[in-house]
Amino acid sequence: MSHPDGEAAAAKWPPIGVEEARANVLSVIAPCRNEQGYIEDFCRNVATMQLPQDWTLEVLIADGRSDDGTRELLNRWCALDRRFRWVDNPQRIVSTGLNRCIEASSGAVIVRLDIHSQYAPDYFVQCVKTLRTTGADNVGGAWRAEGRTSMQKSVAAAFQAPWVAGGARSRDVHYDGEVDTVYLGCWPRATLVKVGGFDEQLVRNQDDEHNLRIRRAGGKIWQSSNIWSTYFPRGQLGQVFRQYSQYGYWKPFVMKKHGQPAALRQLVPAVFVVALVVAVLLALTWSAWPLILLLVAYGGLHVLALIGMRKQLSADMIGPVMAVIGAYHIGYGWGTICGWRDILWGRGPQARWGALTR
């Protein structure tokens, strides 16, 4: 990967002073690449959303050199609605796209959006309101998943289960309060001036690392149940495995940079995969009991997760959901192990872990 060192990238962050921000302007930033099937729905959704009284909107979409017709659709939309602008993102990854949008933005408040989500009409209003009432440095809502196809529904059901997500508050749609990280994000420009932009070395987990940096600087991150959006996850098991193996792979690079994980729960999948490998080796050379006990314990986790999801599941979804849970945990754990391997071997992030999974 040919990205600058994370600390150096933060040091080079452009000195955009708070006094230079345009008051009552909301800057929306969104990275994209090859989103032909989603980009127009996203623009239409954003264009019709409510704004706080007397506020105006600018929307900056960083296109990562799309080759599926996305950029042509984006050009057409920007010509029709002058509030929208596209920004070139030649590096094609999320962190660089976010930074290029922030550099081009002018608003006093900056909101990050995802192309694969839909947003409540009052999403912007609630973001600004929550910033004002909490004094937080970053605010957002829960990461709520919903499926359209049968497999997507299974992925979404597993995604929301507390036993699958390790109790992450970001999946709890009813939670209000401080969190270690938040879905997407909404910042006063002053926060980004203080802590810098996103680490361009990170293909994944740039949001976790950024939120960790905010907390280490004494900032506060707040989740509000009034900030409402719906995320549409991957629809194939292989895509889910690749997605979560990438999430896992980039965690060690965040840990190395800061000397700590963003949250202890992020270490659990790797411990599970190591235990599984050790148990298989013991079964081949000594006794199968460690493997049996581990699988029984993990099966118990599946049962608890299925009980928690029972209102969302039909009988034909049980098998796919169990497969998705396995893909989440094993993919994440395997990716984390590979990340630590590359760090311990003195190698930087490897290019094959940087390919986007959509």
Provide structural commentary.
Mean pLDDT is 86; it is low at 1-19. The chain has a five-stranded mixed sheet. It has a three-stranded mixed sheet with strand order 6-9-7. A two-stranded antiparallel ribbon has the order 5-10. The chain has helices at 6-11, 39-47, 70-80, 94-104, 123-134, 150-160, 162-165, 189-195, 206-216, 237-258, 268-285, 289-308, 318-344, and strands at residues 22-32, 56-63, 84-88, 107-112, 117-119, 138-140, 177-178, 186-188, 221-223, 229-231. The protein has 358 residues and is α/β, with parallel strands linked by helices.
Strand content: 5-15%
Broad shape: globular
N-end to C-end Cα span: 19 Å
Radius of gyration: 21 Å
Give a quick set of tags describing it.
13 helices, globular, 13% strand, 358 residues, alpha/beta
Produce a short descriptive summary.
With 358 residues, this protein is of the alpha/beta class. 47% of the residues lie in helices and 13% in strands.
What secondary-structure arrangement, pairings included, does this model have?
Blueprint: H1 6-11, E1 22-32, H2 39-47, E2 56-63, H3 70-80, E3 84-88, H4 94-104, E4 107-112, E5 117-119, H5 123-134, E6 138-140, H6 150-160, H7 162-165, E7 177-178, E8 186-188, H8 189-195, H9 206-216, E9 221-223, E10 229-231, H10 237-258, H11 268-285, H12 289-308, H13 318-344
Parallel strand pairs: 1-2, 1-4, 2-3, 6-9
Antiparallel strand pairs: 4-8, 5-10, 7-9
Helix pairs in contact: 6-13, 10-13, 11-12, 11-13
